[in-house]
Every structure is written in structure tokens, then in C-alpha cells.
């Protein structure tokens, strides 16, 4: 991340940013700081950059020309200019949009940011119109200049730049994440001023400590910032994923949205039979793999046991680099009919179970970056919806396609190797394996290959070499993950 700050007091910015964690990040090259003294661009021998306001009134106004020239000196050499664009330029002003966590995460995705710090009564409106892309306020109060506000923003944004915080620092529960405040902290000594550290923290029981922290965090938010609690939206990830590819992609997106998603594994038959009701204050991520361009056929149908109440949902169709065809539209139709509002959709590429070449290593770094951007977009949509309500998004494909027949894949079973542990019987998502004979009923089997993957004895295998050859001859070129 490159920061450029246009200011009359560069030392104020340099001293602050080059200290502590941001200072460490500058030294290690994770962020860079370039300050530009607007006064260096004055066009008079006294180096004045301000003048009296037209129309009279108190105070002075910064002139347009020196600000323009200072901005141009940055813009000309910016990364954005090389792509024929203007860099994102933030003007710190109490008239701006109030800085908050989603904005932090969104700005952290940029490669470079320009901050413009005003002084006196402000800056000539005409130059602001030409250079500023974002008007931002750090709170409803007035400062003597924009420098401290720029430092606040740089500090908050840098925490989200990869590598700025150590793993240990960034893995911590964050105040503001999930719209919850942090739980209280304690360190040695165990008793101070007669006050004992809460007993649960001394037990070493990780699960109990986590539960206590979550409870305290909710309690504290209720007490100190009830307005935030109103915005807290628990996320449930309802996924079908026989060989875990879809699950991994869903987990990546979930981790960008919340610290503590509830995972609902619909690969388990029992979980598909239980009706689950969601309120309008929740968020659902429904994820499934693509089978022949559609949702896998299960009994009862995927996601049909979920009931929303104007609950926003994101649908994810994970696919093996061929095509996802109708899957997203189908998922949206199933969920819309059950009280959900589809506010976003993702089609990431994952490894294809029938090929060692298609989708291997996906989601990769580039996919993760794209998923992160999508998560920020979803957070923005949710914030906007607090005012205007949720908007259902249009998706490609047929919402109710005619079912396609999938040719059975050749499977082998080595009875000698089998320990009769019954794992495949229990974990087959569609109950296609006989408990007594361990034979597969091909009329029921959906060819998901879960039984092969989970058999620890190596008693089951499949041969999809012909399918793999065919797919690889047509779909080897890696496809980009898509987001709506
Ligand atoms: C029966 C079957 C049909 C599939 N059809 C498609 C398809 O049409 N397009 C595609 O890109 N991937 C297809 N795949 C690959 C899956 O979408 C996915 O890559 C993976 O095999 C299953 O995901 P999971 O690991 O979450 O179980 C198919 C996989 C199976 C088992
Ligand atoms: S999981 Fe493997 S070992 Fe266990 S019953 Fe099935 S085939 Fe046999
Ligand atoms: S029997 Fe068929 S449906 Fe069941 S786990 Fe095996 S491949 Fe999947």
C-alpha cells in the first residue's frame, strides 16, 4: 500500500506514521509513506498558499493552484495514471461520510491512496471538485487540520494490509468486527487491588474461554454500544460438499464476513431433514458444488429445509472449471421461494473430483483476494440495506432447469481391504450404500465420490479417466471466479 499525503505539515504525518506498528510496516516495505508539502507549490515569494474568502467572513482559504500542483505531482507518477485512471483521493472534512470499519476494509484493498489535508477555513471548492474522490470525516467534531484525521485513517487501514500485523496480532478478536465490542482483557498478577482474574481464564479450557469471551463481548456491546448490536448479523453457512472443495471455498468467504460463522453441513442427511428457521436479522451463505451444470439432486432437495423471513442470503456454486450453467439461478429460486432475499452470488473454481488438472490448487491467492473484495461489497450492500431494504440481484441461467442425467462413474470395491467400519454407509449423502452388503445402488448414487475419499482402508476407488480426458481436452484453461 502506498500512501501519499498532501499537507502543510509533513512532519506531523511522518512522525506519527513512522512510529510503532505502522513504523515497523514502513521499514519492512508493507506500506510506504510519501508526504508532499503543498507550500512547495506556492507561486509567490512569501510561499503563501492561503487567501481571504470571496464574500468576506472570518478565516483564510487554501488556494486552488498550489493544491492542484501538489496533487498533480503525485497523480502523474501514480499507479492509477499508468492505467489511465485517477488515484483515489480522500479529503478529510467534517462534511464527509463518517469513517467506519467497512470503509477501512474497502480502502485497504487499494494499491495507493492520496490524502488531502486542509487547514484554515478549508480549500477552494473548485480544486476539490477536480481532485477529490472521497470526502471522509473521522467523527462529528472539528480539528485544526486534516493531518491527525489522515493519520487515524492510515493507522486503521494499515492493520488490514497483508503482513502489517503479525499472525498473532491479526488472529485476535477485533473490536468492531461483527459489530461487537471486544471482551475484557487481563494479565498478571492474578489478584490486583483485591480483584481476581475471572476463573474461567485460568482453566486453560479453550472452548470455555471462547464461550466466555463471546458472552462478555455481547454483554459489553449491549451495555456500551446497543446501536452496534442492532447491526450484528449472525452468519450461517449451509453447505453441501461431499469431497470438501465447496466447504473450503465457503469457509474462505465466511472468514471474510465474520469471526464466528455457524457451519451447517447439509452433506449429512440428518441436517437436510431438520427444518431451520432464520430471522431477518441473520445472514445465510448457501454453498453447493455444480453437478452437470446444476444443483446436485438429493432427497429432500438441497436447501429446501431452510426457512427465511426476508433473510438476506448469498449463494455460492463451486465448480470444477467446466461451467456452472444454471446452478446459481437455481439456488436463488429455491431460496427465494423459501423467504430468503438473494443479495449476492459467487461462483469460485475448486478442484474437479474427476480430474487432477482441472481446478487444482483453487481457490488460489488471486481467488482469495477476489473473495475478500466480494465480502467487502456484501458488507456495503448490507449497510445500504439498513436504509433502503435488500435488493435481489439478477443471476445468469435458468431457475428451474430440466434435470440432467449423469452417467454413473465406474467404481470398484475391494472386499478384502474393507474393515466393515460402515463409515461409507453412514456418510453417503444420499444413503446409496447397503448396510448389509456394502453395495452401491446406482439408481440412488449421485457419483459424488465421498465414499471413496472417506474410506480409510482404501477399499473403494473409481475410474473417471475417460471423463477426465474429455474435460481436460476442453476446459484446461483456468477460469476466473465470478461474483454478482
Ligand atoms: C457428478 C458430478 C458432476 C459434476 N459436474 C460439473 C460441471 O458440470 N461443471 C463443473 O465445472 N464441475 C463439475 N463437477 C465438479 C464439482 O463441481 C466439484 O469440482 C467437486 O468435484 C465437488 O465439490 P466438493 O469437493 O465440494 O464435493 C462435477 C462433479 C461431480 C461429482
Ligand atoms: S468405509 Fe471402507 S472400510 Fe469402511 S465399510 Fe466402507 S468400504 Fe468398508
Ligand atoms: S455411493 Fe455414490 S452418492 Fe454415495 S458416497 Fe459413494 S459416490 Fe457418493
UniProtKB/TrEMBL annotation:
It catalyses: guanosine(37) in tRNA + S-adenosyl-L-methionine = N(1)-methylguanosine(37) in tRNA + S-adenosyl-L-homocysteine + H(+). Its main location: cytoplasm. It is found in: Cytoplasm. InterPro entries: 4Fe4S_Fe-S-bd, 4Fe4S_Fe_S_CS, Alpha/beta_knot_MTases, Flavoprotein-like_sf, tRNA_m1G_MeTrfase_C_sf, tRNA_m1G_MeTrfase_TrmD, tRNA_m1G_MTases_N, tRNA_MeTrfase_TRMD/TRM10. Residues 409-438, 440-465 form the 4Fe-4S ferredoxin-type domain. It holds the Pfam family Fer4. One of its GO terms (cellular component) is cytosol. Keywords: Cytoplasm, Iron, Iron-sulfur, Metal-binding, Methyltransferase, S-adenosyl-L-methionine, Transferase, tRNA processing. S-adenosyl-L-methionine binds at residues 118, 138-143. GO terms for biological process: tRNA N1-guanine methylation. GO terms for molecular function: iron-sulfur cluster binding; metal ion binding; tRNA (guanine(37)-N1)-methyltransferase activity. Its EC number is 2.1.1.228. The keyword Oxidoreductase does not apply. Homodimer. Belongs to the RNA methyltransferase TrmD family. Specifically methylates guanosine-37 in various tRNAs. This is tRNA (guanine-N(1)-)-methyltransferase.
Amino acid at each position: 500500500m502506498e500512501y501519499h499525503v498532501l499537507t502543510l505539515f509533513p512532519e506531523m504525518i511522518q512522525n506519527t506514521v513512522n512510529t510503532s506498528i505502522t513504523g515497523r510496516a514502513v521499514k519492512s516495505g508493507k506500506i510506504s509513506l510519501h508526504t508532499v508539502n503543498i507550500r512547495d507549490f506556492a507561486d509567490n515569494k512569501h510561499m503563501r498558499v492561503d487567501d481571504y474568502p470571496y464574500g468576506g467572513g472570518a478565516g483564510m482559504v487554501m488556494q486552488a493552484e498550489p493544491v492542484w500542483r501538489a496533487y498533480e505531482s503525485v497523480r502523474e507518477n501514480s499507479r492509477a495514471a499508468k492505467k489511465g485512471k485517477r488515484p483515489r483521493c480522500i479529503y478529510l472534512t467534517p462534511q464527509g461520510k463518517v469513517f467506519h470499519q467497512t470503509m477501512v476494509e474497502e480502502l485497504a484493498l487499494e494499491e495507493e491512496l492520496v490524502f488531502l489535508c486542509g487547514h484554515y477555513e478549508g480549500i477552494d471548492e473548485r480544486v476539490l471538485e477536480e481532485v477529490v474522490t472521497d470526502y471522509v470525516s473521522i467523527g462529528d467534531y472539528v480539528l485544526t487540520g486534516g493531518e491527525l484525521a489522515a493519520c487515524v485513517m492510515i493507522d486503521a487501514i494499515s492493520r488490514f494490509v497483508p503482513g502489517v500485523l503479525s499472525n498473532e496480532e491479526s488472529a485476535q478478536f477485533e473490536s468492531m468486527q461483527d459489530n461487537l465490542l471486544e471482551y475484557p482483557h487481563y494479565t498478571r498478577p492474578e489478584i490486583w487491588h483485591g480483584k481476581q482474574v475471572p476463573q474461567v481464564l485460568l482453566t486453560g479450557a479453550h472452548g470455555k474461554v471462547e464461550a466466555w469471551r463471546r458472552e462478555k463481548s455481547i454483554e459489553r456491546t449491549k451495555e456500551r454500544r446497543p446501536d452496534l448490536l442492532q447491526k450484528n448479523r449472525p452468519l450461517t453457512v449451509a453447505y453441501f460438499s461431499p469431497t470438501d472443495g465447496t466447504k473450503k471455498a465457503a469457509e474462505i468467504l465466511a472468514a471474510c464476513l465474520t469471526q464466528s460463522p455457524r457451519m451447517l453441513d447439509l452433506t449429512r442427511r440428518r441436517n437436510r431433514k431438520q427444518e431451520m428457521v432464520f430471522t431477518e436479522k441473520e445472514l445465510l451463505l448457501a454453498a453447493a458444488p455444480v453437478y452437470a451444470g446444476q444443483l446436485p439432486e438429493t432427497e429432500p432437495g438441497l436447501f429446501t429445509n431452510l426457512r427465511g423471513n426476508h433473510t438476506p442470503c448469498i449463494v455460492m456454486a463451486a465448480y470444477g472449471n467446466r461451467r456452472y450453467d444454471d446452478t446459481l439461478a437455481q439456488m436463488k429460486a429455491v431460496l427465494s421461494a423459501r423467504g430468503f432475499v438473494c443479495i449476492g452470488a459467487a461462483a469460485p473454481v475448486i478442484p474437479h473430483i474427476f480430474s487432477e488438472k482441472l481446478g487444482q490448487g483453487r481457490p488460489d491467492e488471486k481467488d482469495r483476494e477476489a473473495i475478500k473484495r466480494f465480502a467487502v461489497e456484501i458488507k456495503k450492500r448490507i449497510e445500504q440495506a439498513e436504509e433502503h431494504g435488500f435488493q435481489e440481484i439478477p443471476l445468469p441461467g435458468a431457475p428451474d432447469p430440466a434435470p440432467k442425467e449423469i452417467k454413473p462413474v465406474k467404481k470398484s470395491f475391494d472386499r478384502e481391504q474393507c474393515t466393515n467400519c460402515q463409515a461409507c454407509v453412514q456418510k453417503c449423502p444420499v444413503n446409496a450404500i447397503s448396510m448389509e452388503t456394502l453395495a452401491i445402488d446406482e439408481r440412488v448414487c449421485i457419483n459424488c465420490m465421498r465414499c471413496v475419499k472417506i474410506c480409510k482402508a482404501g477399499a473403494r476407488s473409481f475410474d473417471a479417466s475417460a471423463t477426465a480426458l474429455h474435460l481436460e481436452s476442453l476446459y484446461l484453461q483456468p477460469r476466473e471466479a465470478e461474483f454478482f
